[in-house]
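Notebook p. 47: complex prediction with iron/sulfur cluster.
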Amino acid sequence: MKIFILTFGCKVNQHESQQTANQLLSLGHQVVGQVDEAELVIVNTCTVTQVADKKSRQMIRHVARHHPLAKIIITGCMPENPMTPIDVLSGSEIVLKGELAAYLSTLPSPQLLATSSTSQGRIRRTLLIQTGCDYYCSYCIIPTVRHGRVSFPQNKILHDFKLLVSEGVKEIVLTGINLGTWQEDDRNVSDLVETLLDVNGDFRIRLGSLEPNLVNEKLLALMGDHPRLATHLHVPLQGAANTLLKRMNRRYSLEDYLALCDKVAAAKRPIQLTTDLIIGYPEETDAEFEGALNLIETGLFLDVHAFAYSVRQGTVAASKPQLAPSLVRERMKRILVAIEDAKKKALRAMQGKRATILVETIQEGQATGYTEGYVKVMIEATGITKNRFVEVVFGAPLLIGKEWGLKGTV
Ligand code: SF4
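Predicted complex, structure tokens below:
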């Protein structure tokens, strides 16, 4: 059967879609790259915000309307969220994520196709090490939808990690809903990373998003010392004022966060820091918003992902007084300008420095890839092959697709 998988949301969903694709390939199905070719479409939904719900719903309707012959499976987070009703259109069916693997194993089995080693997905793969979160940030539905925390056993992670390395995957991104809470007996996420770094092979490890209170000294020391651990930390700040952080029920103060930034800056190798900010959180004051703008202008971050707050029913924040949408839009515009300016400034400051990119694409004589610090770089493709580490010297900033990066030379 020809199957197309559409994925919304976070790295966990992407990882789960990848696992679904692997299962389908091992059952002899064909995972196709175009929805037009598909007999079955799996929509792996996200419910992190109401905007996410809307996007998933729109896509389900679009597929149903334009591909009436394809059967649609709706899975992922939306069906798990009691606050998110789903219209089951004709030709579509809801399958809870815990039941998806069993459901797929009942699909009519075709001739086995040897496709599990396609080049797609061999450059960077995610490895899920834990799931669930019990932090209950005021704006987030995830703890309600993904109950409790589960850390996958180190033995299983190590086995899967070695498998990816043996398949030629060059960058493995450790991911989880709240990655830094991984634990086995008295071992935490930095101990796990240390164990994985001891595996033989040509790879690098990148870490997914880590909560500020969970970045420990050992992790920073590993990043400073170990060339196979990518020097990039994505640490979501969300609000740049203590009053805001308290209302969001975050587990740190702005001072704690800035103290962490000082430790990051003192690491042996330069570590690039990126973050998330929510703009327009209920009752966000002018001063709280200006705090975010000022922080961006300090140049602390290589990049900031700013999200306009959107109401998520079932969360504490949903019952609070909301800002006018026009004010949120205006603040978003200002913050996006500040982010772009800060990113270009940070990139300009890197000119002349060296880094290693993993080549991901080659098109029209140009190769692109990301550095260990997660800077996108474009170089001349002569003599360059995909899925290889290449040392580069940074040149001037340039727009690569929709993302600001750097020109590089080998
Ligand atoms: S840490 Fe907060 S924002 Fe992140 S998943 Fe947990 S509750 Fe949601």
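Notes: Residues 132 and 148 are 5 Å apart (CA to CA). Residues 2-104 form a domain with the Rossmann fold fold (CATH 3.40.50.12160).
Next step: compare against the earlier run before touching the bench.
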